[in-house]
Amino acid sequence: MTKIRISNGMFIAMIVNMIFVKSIGVTQGTLARIAGQDMWLATLLGTLQGMIIMYITYMALKRAPGMNFLSLGEAVLGKWLGKVVALIVLVFFIASSGPIMITFVYHLRDYFLPEAPLSLFLVSSLLVGALGCFYGLEVVARLALLGMLFIFLLNVLIIIGSTHEFDIRNLLPVLENGFPAVAEASLHYDADCAMAVMMAAIVMPFVNNADKHGGRIGMTGLAATGMVTLIWALLEGAVLSSEVTSQYTVSCMKLARNAHIGDFLQRYEMIMIALYSVPVLFEIMICIYGTSVSMSKLFGLRRDRWMIVPACLVIAGFSYRIVGDHFKAMEYLEKIWPYIALPIAFGLPVVMLWLAVVFRGKLRRAE
Question: Rounded to 10 degrees, what is the CA torsion of 101, 104, 106, 111?
Fold first, then answer.
């Protein structure tokens, strides 16, 4: 493994950035359509479930110090069977580019640049993402710290601008649609957590003292994400109501457009979208990084940088097919993506933990 070092704070910031953008952007609308005013409970439940699977991921990596899932798969299954793990990770990150690009493109094109071609958004975002990956994972991790600051400022602005319209009656009665609806809705938030789990599966070995504190750090990151996302779930439910939230693809922009501070600062959503841009670009960078790393392992290359351009081309082609049509995008987001994300992100850590336990002798020799 290369000598990349990521601090604990950077790793927490990476987890928050990886989940927050999509969860407030398009996921809350999905939760409102399923759970109604209990979408905040679905967010909370999804956070707890994500913390559990993050800890299982840590337990698997703890048994193979210095290895990520790609290296662990090769160590216990051999060079060729280990490529199956790389292929699964590759499929996940390519599939995750769909929801990420839906979030990025629909925020900008639908609300600010409706006449701009889709290719403009895809090419510009992938160029920035490729540049970040070229400079390395540590640079991307530092960007996450900046994104964390922007997320904090974004939440402060939305709280100040929206709380005067907060009506708790819009959140009542609790569990009106029953707990099964909340549990079903939480799976869509779990699909957001899945991106953070798979990111951790390939970058956790680079985190300082990950073998000792990786589980606690990972769960802290997910808990922090849950708290900052819960603010939006409560505000969208109480200010807009679940009925209004459910009608929007990008429900957070409706809340942002309603926000104002007094009579002098109206319609400051452009400030908020500027703050939103760094976290979403971080997501794109991690998507490119995960795709390029898994492609390098799959083709037996030593340097991940050689796969950055091919990874961008694959992501661009896939995203263009998904994002170009709103109906196809929503169908993918709500009916296809969870069935890809959840089995991989929740199943692969369990399988890798089982392999690490069964083949612990091989792991000792590999170390």
Answer: -170
Q: pLDDT tens, 348-358?
A: 999 999 999 98
pLDDT per residue over 250-266, tens digit each? 888 888 888 777 666 66
Radius of gyration of the CA atoms of the chain, in A: 20
Which string of b and e fits 291-318 if b means at least 16 CB within 10 Å? bbbbbbbbeeeeebeebbeebbebbbeb
Q: What six digits make up the tokens of 8?
A: 């604990």
What the chain holds in terms of domains, given with CATH numbers, is 8-361 (1.20.1740.10)
Identity at 23, one-letter amino acid code: S
pLDDT computed for residue 186 by the predictor: 96
> So what's the pLDDT on residue 268?
67
Segments in 112-241 forming alpha helices (H) = 118-135, 137-162, 179-203, 210-235
| pLDDT computed for residue 367 by the predictor | 60
Question: What is each CA distance from 191 to 46, 69, 81, 96, 341, in whole angstroms?
Answer: 9, 19, 27, 9, 6
Q: Are 26 and 204 in contact (CB under 8 A)?
A: no
Which residues in the chain land under pLDDT 50?
A: 1-2
Please give the C-alpha separations between residue 319 and each of 33, 49, 119, 303, 323, in angstroms, as whole numbers.
Answer: 25, 28, 10, 25, 6
User: 3-class SS at 325?
Assistant: coil
